[in-house]
Design brief:
5-stranded mixed sheet, 33% helix, ATPase_BadF, iron
């Protein structure tokens, strides 16, 4: 059997998973909507990976997790590595593009920029609470126009005169969009204007003060939108590279980190995690003045992990399974 490693990236909008072999090649992949339930989404992704993987050839030896629910999903899967998205994306991208200098990433509700020098992430920034320049913004505007967001790229590229749409926040953008529709702007010009606004919003907020140097790699679900890719290239004046698996880069980086980790898993990984019931519970510790909010994770009623305590008094004994 060949060694394989699983990486999972659980975000607020989508959950991504990959299985890689010892050479770092992706041998199974999955991309599903989180739908407000990260534990269930993680289980569904694991089931899809199980179906896609050739079990006569590969055996998963270790797991790595990233994303907003990385700690929770890491507890579920017995992960040997739990890392933030900046680290995971940087590790995954530099593996595929050793010379990369700038990583642009736009997801469903957040976005980030990572500046790389010599294969090491030296600076980064993430968006604020406003989601005007993210995938959810484009999805809501597509709905308003009666389109599927997947159509945006092709439609945007057909425009010769993109409309100027203010995208500094969703309220202004929607107001401006309605105004352009009422003025009779062509649909392709409005769509191209939205793509252009997303790129401008990103560069003026997330990328503000950052030195964007080529080679530039664009990742996240929005990178699949050819209209936004074109808008970035026009704004930056340099080529922007998009990988076929760019939307899976966080999960890919998590898998690579798991492969390189010296930590030995407490138990062999099993795909039957999808058959267990996982629940979380918040407990306020009253054993000192901190009153920490301790998060406890249960698998079929048995506590398997906890975090949030700031001293040993709040430590919770968990099952070693």
């Amino acid at each position: 059997m060949k060694d394989a490693y699983l990486g999972l990236d659980t975000g607020s909008i989508s959950t991504k998973g990959v299985v890689i072999d010892a050479d770092g090649t992706i041998v199974a992949r999955s991309y599903l909507w989180t739908e407000g339930n990260p534990t269930e989404a993680a289980q569904r992704v694991v089931r899809e990976l199980e179906q896609a993987l050739d079990h006569t050839v590969y055996q998963v030896r270790a797991v790595g997790t990233t994303g907003s629910a990385r700690r929770l999903v890491g507890a579920m899967l017995g992960a040997v590595v739990v890392k933030n998205e900046i680290t995971a994306h940087a590790v995954g991208t530099t593996r595929l593009h050793p010379d990369v200098r700038t990583i642009l990433e736009i997801g469903g509700q957040d976005s980030k920029i990572i500046c790389v020098d010599g294969g090491i992430a030296v600076d980064y920034a993430m968006n604020t609470l406003c989601a005007a320049g993210t995938g959810s913004f484009l999805s809501s505007q597509a709905h308003r126009l009666g389109l599927e967001v997947e159509q945006f790229g092709e439609i945007a590229l057909s425009s010769e005169h993109p409309a100027n749409i203010a995208a500094r926040c969703t309220v202004f953008a929607e107001s401006d969009l309605v105004h352009k529709i009422q003025m009779g702007y062509a649909r392709e010009d409005i769509v191209a204007g939205l793509c252009k606004a997303v790129a401008a919003n990103y560069l003026n907020n997330v990328g503000k003060g950052k030195r964007i140097v080529a080679p530039v790699v664009f990742q996240g679900g929005v990178s699949k939108n050819a209209g936004v890719v074109r808008a970035f290239e026009d704004a930056l004046g340099i080529p922007v590279l998009v990988d076929a698996d760019g939307h899976l880069m966080g999960a890919y980086g998590a898998a690579l980190l798991a492969a390189d980790s010296p930590v030995i898993p407490k138990r062999p990984f099993s795909f039957d995690v999808g058959s267990f019931e996982f629940k979380t519970r918040e407990v306020e510790c009253a054993k000192c003045a901190n009153h920490c909010e301790v998060i406890c994770v249960y698998q079929d009623g048995t506590i398997i992990d906890s975090w949030g305590n700031r001293c040993e008094k709040g430590a919770v004994k968990v099952s070693s399974r």
